[in-house]
């Protein structure tokens, strides 16, 4: 069985000439014919070269791997029972699913509280993030969940003021923080600022703590989509030159006269801006933690990606030793920006394996009495059943599930519906629900009542899309937890799951379904 699709994908806008007869190992047509115009990835690379490394069209898409992993979260099933209730009185009139409490508290002092156990990990300088930030920020704040401002936002902002190599003022970053904080309610949720190599050099986190009141910062070791720094495409020569001056890697060199001439003649239309890879050392990590603490950070997070087990262990140990508040572990396969497509498919440890290793490593430290951080699992989560499984797989250490592509999708759909309403061009598929915001968005009436007409009118439809999507996830998760007789998150355990294959049982350490409850069954049936 081939796990990978090669040489043709919607992600790279390519396809094979012969759809039915493909060589599995190469992805080439069985008969590659002289005279073909080159629709496959090899053919397109023959005339567009490095452009075909990345998913397209850039700036309006998020992307995830097509690779089919040997084991994934679908190989786990959620277990339910008929006896008792945890976290509520075992009374059929009280143990109802609306009574399930999804609130979660974490941090070294339990001072961070979310209404729901999920967070949007770092989404930064990509167009897809910037163009949907209004919906993401306001929707997250209204829902009482976390949102992370990703890497390079200040550095990419042409209106940022940089003096002596340090950021002293911004427009985009200031806007992003304010949009969230203006709609934050009752102390729930948090805005987090991430930093990579370039951000750290520019002093972005120190600026945000001092000038913007940001309390939570995140150090970044990587993500699940790629094992190199972040990339974006730049279509403006002056902006490419500005970023080059700010220290970014920009390809081709936008200050080279020959390159400038070629760009102006239309030989190519886009520059690539790349970030540097970090060089992790315990000394450097400890130093950076101390720096942001001195700058006034109240909480410190770490985000790591789908790296080899050695580096996962290193991340967990550093988080334990230096009292990091949250560790996000992002499994291979997805991204919100311009990750190299083959890297996205073929690099890294897949989510189920990576998250199982995380549980094992964290438990080893906890069993020895060491401090362990709260953990967030990320990597392809979209719906309540997967959220349940992730929380249970890592229980009691996993407090949150990280999701980016799905919330962005919800915000984009909400925004698109809003534009269609304004233009009077609602598709029939949407129009059947009504022709107003209150009729189309099922949460609108209640939210309007809660906020009042004046404040509700300030809510963009992108935020309503995210808020409504979150409302669905919350009710779905409550139903699943109720069925498992768990009425608060603290009672979720790995015993709430069973594996459908022996391979997934070996990976996770969770029993194969046919082996589940064997001792208890023997006691019941003993005559």
Could you give the topology of this structure?
Layout lengths: L40 H8 L14 E2 L11 E3 L25 E3 L5 E3 L3 E6 L3 H4 L2 H11 L2 E4 L3 H4 L4 E3 L2 E4 L2 H12 L6 E6 L1 H6 L1 H9 L3 E5 L10 E4 L2 H9 L3 E3 L5 H9 L5 E4 L7 H14 L3 E6 L4 H13 L4 E5 L3 E2 L5 H6 L4 H17 L6 E5 L5 H10 L4 E5 L2 H19 L4 H4 L5 H4 L3 H8 L1 H4 L4 H23 L13 E3 L2 H7 L9 H8 L2
Parallel strand pairs: 5-6, 5-18, 6-9, 9-10, 10-14, 14-15, 15-17, 17-18
Antiparallel strand pairs: 1-16, 2-19, 3-4, 7-8, 11-13, 12-13
Overview of this structure, please?
This protein has an eight-stranded parallel barrel, surrounded by seven helices. A three-stranded antiparallel sheet has the order 11-13-12, covered by helices on one side. A two-stranded antiparallel ribbon has the order 1-16. It is α/β, with parallel strands linked by helices and 527 residues long. The longest helix is centred in the C-terminal third of the chain and has 23 residues, at 461-483. The chain starts with 40 loop residues before the first helix and ends with a helix. 40% of the residues lie in helices and 14% in strands. It is globular and about 85 Å long.
The gist of it:
By secondary structure, the protein is α/β, with parallel strands linked by helices. The chain is 40% helix and 14% strand. Among the domains are: 53 residues, no CATH class; 44 residues, no CATH class; 31 residues, no CATH class.
Secondary-structure content class: alpha/beta
State which percent range the strand residues make up.
5-15%
**Number of E strands:** 19
Number of continuous helical runs: 22
Q: What do the pLDDT scores average to?
A: 95
Low-confidence runs (pLDDT<50, min 5 residues)?
A: none
Strand order of the largest sheet: 5-6-9-10-14-15-17-18
Approximately how much helix is present in the residues? 25-40%
Spatial separation of the terminal alpha carbons: 47 Å
Using the alpha-carbon principal axes, give the shape: globular
Q: Main beta sheet: strand number and arrangement?
A: 8 strands, parallel, barrel
From the alpha-carbon coordinates, what is the Rg to the nearest angstrom?
24 Å
């Amino acid at each position: 069985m081939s796990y990978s699709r090669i040489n043709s994908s919607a992600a790279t806008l390519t396809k094979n000439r012969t759809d039915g007869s493909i060589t599995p190992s190469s992805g080439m047509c069985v008969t590659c014919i002289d005279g073909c115009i080159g629709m496959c990835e090899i053919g397109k690379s023959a005339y567009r070269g490095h452009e075909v490394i990345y998913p397209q069209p850039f700036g309006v898409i998020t992307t995830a791997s097509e690779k089919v992993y040997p084991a994934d979260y679908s190989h786990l099933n959620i277990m339910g029972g008929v006896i008792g209730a945890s976290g509520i009185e075992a009374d059929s009139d009280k143990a109802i699913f609306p009574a399930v409490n999804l609130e979660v508290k974490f941090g070294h002092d339990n001072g961070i509280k979310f209404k729901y156990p999920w967070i949007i990990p770092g989404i930064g300088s990509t167009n897809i993030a910037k163009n949907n930030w209004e919906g993401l920020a306001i929707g997250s704040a209204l829902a009482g969940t976390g949102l992370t401002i990703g890497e390079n936002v200040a550095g990419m902002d042409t209106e940022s003021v940089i003096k002596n190599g340090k950021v002293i003022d911004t427009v985009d970053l200031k806007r992003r923080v304010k949009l969230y904080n203006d709609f934050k309610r009752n102390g729930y949720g948090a805005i987090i600022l991430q930093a990579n190599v370039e951000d750290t050099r520019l002093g972005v986190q120190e600026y945000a703590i001092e000038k913007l009141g940001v309390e939570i910062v995140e150090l970044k070791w990587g993500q699940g989509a790629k094992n190199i720094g972040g990339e974006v495409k730049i279509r403006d020569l002056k902006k490419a030159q500005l970023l080059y001056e700010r220290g970014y890697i920009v390809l081709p060199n936008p200050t080279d006269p020959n390159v400038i001439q070629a760009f102006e003649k239309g030989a190519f239309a886009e520059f690539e801006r790349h970030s540097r890879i970090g060089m992790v050392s315990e000394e450097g990590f400890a130093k950076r933690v101390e720096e942001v603490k001195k700058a006034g950070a109240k909480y410190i997070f770490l985000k790591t990606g789908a790296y080899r087990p050695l580096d996962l262990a290193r991340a967990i140990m550093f988080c334990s030793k230096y009292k990091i508040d949250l560790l996000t572990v992002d499994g291979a396969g997805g991204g919100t920006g311009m990750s190299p497509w083959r890297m996205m498919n073929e690099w890294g440890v897949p989510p189920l394996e990576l998250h199982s290793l995380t549980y094992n490593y964290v438990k080893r430290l906890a069993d020895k009495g060491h401090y362990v951080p709260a953990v967030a699992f990320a990597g392809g989560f979209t719906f309540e059943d997967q959220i349940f499984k992730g929380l249970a797989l890592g229980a009691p250490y996993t407090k949150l599930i990280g999701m980016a592509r799905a919330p962005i999708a919800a915000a984009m759909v909400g925004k698109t519906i809003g534009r269609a309403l304004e233009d009077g061009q609602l598709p029939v598929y949407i129009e059947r629900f009504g022709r107003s915001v209150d009729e189309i968005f099922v949460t609108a009436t209640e939210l309007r009542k809660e906020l009042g007409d004046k404040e509700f009118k300030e809510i963009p439809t992108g935020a309503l899309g995210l808020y409504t999507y979150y409302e669905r996830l919350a009710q779905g998760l409550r139903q699943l937890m109720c069925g498992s007789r768990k009425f608060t998150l603290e009672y979720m355990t790995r015993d709430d799951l069973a594996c459908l294959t022996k391979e997934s049982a070996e990976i996770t350490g969770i029993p194969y379904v046919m082996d589940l409850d064997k001792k208890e069954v023997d006691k019941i049936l003993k005559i």
